[in-house]
Design a protein that fits this description.
It contains 31 helices and no strands. The longest helix is centred in the middle third of the chain and has 18 residues, at 310-327. The chain has a domain at 395-527: Serine Threonine Protein Phosphatase 5, Tetratricopeptide repeat, CATH 1.25.40. It is mostly helical. It is elongated, with a radius of gyration of 31 Å.
Length: 529
């Protein structure tokens, strides 16, 4: 499941309705509005009333599936197969779970069984298979379009077919064709907010946020209780830095729906919006009332890490992983945050293993190699550290000072001072006012000239002194002592005792107990004798 879909589900807004549905159609509508707890109660009532109705089991499973609980969804689909083995939809459901778990051959076997049972005459079966092909991590958009073409022939006035066809073209980045199909869906059902939502998502994807917001407004004008539109609107406002507008969307939602699941999704939204302190505050409020929801541990683990509360974050993520295999699908961010928390709490080897899992699952996740490089450095595995940092640097259009510093330091500790200097020079070029690059260039060059035959480090130590601002002296004291000492020794070597004295005096101002400086200042040369 891609990250965009994951966040869209997990941070969804809910809806106005809180009563139990009276019909299957009502329960499905609650799921569509992402009111999963209310829908759960409705489906339970329907299942008790119609224990052999395969469609009830399927849409009950869909309620779990759309709430990203694949294990519970699969269990419900399997119940449906046991209750009515001739109902094709539950085979589609079982296949969808397999497709999302990247068991594509098993999935296709179930899809084939569903199509065979329905004699290729059930448009819903075809649409649901197509939906999996469009939205799963594994894509098969051409096959989805074939199925949707058949479904349209069976139900030419079903707007859902047109919406999914638009989704398929959008997945192919063909916005023009997607719009055409969404507009056809609107023509078929002018009262449905779904097409307006899809149009908003299309414009959002194109980064035309004004048009996206206009379409989300159309959706809520058509149906003020249509939850996904509020969620999407809040997401845009947050990314635009309009935090009050974004929070207003979610606060309105929470006023209308005070379910526990709504509060949990709000915590997830705050994490996505990088409001980590608020996420921790709200999340801890929820967990005091109900500690059973696994997503809370994921969100709180992430937030604790970003708030530099590493032991607490590790505890939350360990609980999450203990339960995750049975309850939810693990995503790359889970391994990434778990690995970073392990590394920050002294468990570097385990941390690296988990961060590498994240990178393997999501090859676009290059930032994690910085953390891997830092963990290897801490373990004094310098070649591995160099390799990790270089992976990150190679993938970056404009590598930052932190990565060049990381790899430079690993080269330095490997006694490869030439490559270390090459890394540090990149820092001085990209950040010419930062003392960091100059002090490490000085260290590298001092080691390239161990007998001070050429005094290679002198210009870089002089740059350190020049770059440190008066208000930064205290935090750079150690580097300044090193710089003044080196230059003092240089002048002493040149028998320029006046300038040597100036520099050693600076050393003593910074470090009154410095033995080398005190020794020189007490010498006959310093005394002018």
């Amino acid at each position: 499941m891609n990250n965009r879909r994951f966040f869209g589900i997990c941070f969804a807004l809910l809806t106005l309705s809180t009563g139990k549905a009276q019909t299957l159609k009502d329960a499905i509508r609650q799921t569509t509005n992402e009111q999963f707890e209310t829908a759960d109660a409705s489906f339970k009532a329907l299942q008790a009333k119609e224990p052999a109705n395969g469609e009830v089991y399927f849409y009950f499973g869909e309620n779990y599936f759309k709430n990203d609980n694949l294990a519970a969804a699969d269990a419900k689909y399997q119940e449906g197969i046991a209750a009515n083995a001739t109902n094709a939809l539950n085979y589609v459901g079982a296949g969808k779970v397999q497709w999302y778990n990247k068991k594509d051959q098993d999935a296709k076997s179930n899809f084939f069984k569903a199509l065979t049972l329905s004699q290729n005459k059930n448009a819903t079966v075809m649409m649901k298979i197509a939906e999996a092909y469009i939205n799963g991590d594994i894509k098969d958009v051409p096959e989805a379009l074939k199925l949707l073409t058949q479904a349209q022939k069976l139900e030419p006035k079903n707007p859902e077919v047109f919406l999914l066809t638009g989704d398929a073209y959008l997945e192919q980045n063909n916005g023009t064709e997607a719009v055409k199909w969404y507009e056809k869906a609107v023509e078929l059902d002018k009262t449905s907010p779904k097409a307006a939502l899809r149009m908003g998502q299309l414009w959002n994807r194109s980064k035309n946020y004004t048009e996206a917001l206009n379409n989300y407004k159309k959706a809520t004008d058509l149906d003020p209780s249509f939850a996904p539109a509020y969620r999407e609107r809040g997401d845009i406002y947050f990314r635009a830095g309009q935090y009050q507008n974004a929070i207003a969307q979610y606060q309105k939602y929470l006023e209308l729906n005070n379910n526990l699941s709504a509060k949990i999704r709000y915590v997830g939204f705050l994490v996505q919006a990088k409001q980590y302190k608020d996420a921790l505050s709200k999340g801890n409020e929820v967990i005091m009332k109900d500690s059973s929801n696994i997503y809370l541990y994921r969100y709180l683990g992430y937030a604790h890490y970003e708030n530099a509360e590493y032991p607490a974050g590790l505890m939350r993520m360990e609980i999450f992983f203990k339960r995750a295999d049975k309850e939810v699908r693990i995503i790359p961010q889970d391994y990434e945050y778990y690995g970073k928390l392990l590394a920050k709490t002294g468990k570097d080897s385990l941390g690296i293993v988990n961060m590498l899992k994240a990178a393997e699952m999501d090859t676009t996740k290059k930032d994690v190699y910085s953390e891997i490089g830092a963990a290897y450095f801490k373990m004094k595995k310098y070649p591995e550290s160099i390799a990790a940092y270089n992976k990150k640097i190679a993938a970056s259009a404009k590598p930052g000072a932190n990565d060049n510093f990381g790899v430079g330091r690993a080269y330095f500790m490997s006694k490869d001072f030439v490559n270390a200097d090459s890394a540090f020079v990149k820092i001085t070029r990209s950040n010419p006012d930062l003392p960091l690059g100059y002090i490490w260039r000085a260290k590298a060059n001092a080691n390239l000239d161990p007998k001070n035959e050429k005094w290679l480090a002198k210009p870089y130590y002089e740059a350190v002194i020049a770059k440190v601002k008066p208000e930064e002296v205290e935090k750079n004291k150690k580097d300044l002592v090193e710089a003044y000492t080196y230059i003092g020794v240089y002048y002493l070597n040149q028998k320029d005792y006046t300038n040597a004295k100036v520099n050693f005096k600076k050393v003593l101002e910074l470090d009154p107990n410095n033995a080398n400086a005190k020794k020189f200042m007490a010498s006959p040369e310093a005394q002018g004798k």
